[in-house]
Amino acid sequence: MALSFTGDQSRQAAAALLRLQSLDATRKLVKAGLIETEGSSSRKETCYRTTKMGRSVTEAYADLRAATLPPMLEALDGRAEKSESAGSHLELVASIYAQAAQVAITRRHQP
Question: Could you please report the per-residue DSSP string of 62-102?
């Protein structure tokens, strides 16, 4: 059975889902030893920092991406100029998406 939400219910459900996914992802990163908590035990006041292993993993990923992405882009045969433009468009869409999510969360707190 599918749940159906309208208006404020839909925004509230989406915001709650995003919070749950974020908490779940954070817990998994802590459990994996990639990040650690710092500061208060309160959820609102807890800060996180990467561990030595977390930095190692992200650096290895950055190295792998740096080694694999440029050859893939070169294989596009003259499309490098277009990919720069496409990158700008993707950044714009990501920015608009983030802004829309923030508006939805903000409206959740309004009467």
Answer: HHHHHHHHHHHHHTTSS-HHHHHHHHHHHHHHHHHHHHHHH
